[in-house]
Amino acid sequence: MTSKKQAAVPPSLSYELYPPATPEAGEAVLRTIDELEATRPDYVSVTYSGTPARRLASIELIGHLTSNTRLRPLAHLCCVGETRASLDLLVRQLVALGVRGLLALRGDLPQDPQAVRGELPFAQSLVELIREVEARHGAALAGGRLAVGVAAYPNRHPESPSFLHDVEVLVSKQRSGADFAITQVYFDPAHYVRLLTAARAAGVTIPIIPGVMPLGNIRRLERLAGMTGVRPDPALLHRLETASGEAERRRIGVRAAAVLARAAFDAGAPGVHLYTFNDHRASIEVIEEIDLPVARTPAAVPA
Ligand code: FAD
């Protein structure tokens, strides 16, 4: 890596996977996992959705990771629509599968105002619940402290009154027992630096890991903008729209992601979390592009 401000501990590397929805996608994700395992990530996160079928798919994917690979899963868990009792049970089920790291999230609110919102209003409450479950079951639960991560926002969360409100929320999540944060996607390197600076000034000491997405797919960028409120860089969109084909779009996306990752390391990022969309190629190209050392020791993330 060319960064001047290299951390004393080698940077952490992690990937996000989502549970496959079809048998064909299931085979593809197994290939992706094989390829990613060879890069020796510190952990692999698995996204979560509350619908019964998707929840089962997440649990199956996590079971595959713990039973058949050397990869350490970080299980996403959302509190929206759940009761305290259902979450308590889920935490214990995940730990029984071998999970030692959880990403505590609220999840997106249901569109239907009549839909059940659940007993916990915020991700912060889920962090507290996880710590309560852990305290109640003690060493019998996980044989050690669970690593609990949370989301952080380089750009204002769509429901939030301000970026600084989100920073205060991050302070509260840390106070409730979060060990580290992973950022939402962002497109401007300055936005990670702004978050890091504001969070440190507000008293956040936990690692804030930049979530970086290879940015080569126009449809995905637009869908993501709808979901997160984060608008892609118009210059990048133009380059993608005028690219000659898929291979060139991937190269453009990989380079743009590498720029984000390098800038984050220069600002002192403790690692990088790559949103893979279950496609290993672009993510592996990003880590080759930034020349990330592979002989890493785990940072302050799931042990
Ligand atoms: P919260 O931290 O609860 O924030 C939600 C809103 O409430 C924000 O506007 C915040 O400002 C406000 N708020 C929070 N706490 C307080 C408080 N104490 N007082 C006042 N206001 C408060 N979604 C999925 O469905 N599945 C996934 O697997 C998933 N993985 C994700 C992974 C990452 C790294 C990230 C960044 C997001 C992920 N999401 C996932 C999306 C996430 O669920 C949404 O962004 C959701 O809208 C907010 O989740 P949160 O955990 O940040 O919620």
TrEMBL record:
<dbReference type="InterPro" id="IPR003171">
    <property type="entry name" value="Mehydrof_redctse-like"/>
</dbReference>
<dbReference type="GO" id="GO:0004489">
    <property type="term" value="F:methylenetetrahydrofolate reductase [NAD(P)H] activity"/>
</dbReference>
<comment type="pathway">
    <text>One-carbon metabolism; tetrahydrofolate interconversion.</text>
</comment>
<comment type="similarity">
    <text>Belongs to the methylenetetrahydrofolate reductase family.</text>
</comment>
<keyword id="KW-0285">Flavoprotein</keyword>
<keyword id="KW-0274">FAD</keyword>
<dbReference type="InterPro" id="IPR029041">
    <property type="entry name" value="FAD-linked_oxidoreductase-like"/>
</dbReference>
<protein>
    <recommendedName>
        <fullName>Methylenetetrahydrofolate reductase</fullName>
    </recommendedName>
</protein>
<dbReference type="Pfam" id="PF02219">
    <property type="entry name" value="MTHFR"/>
</dbReference>
<keyword id="KW-0560">Oxidoreductase</keyword>
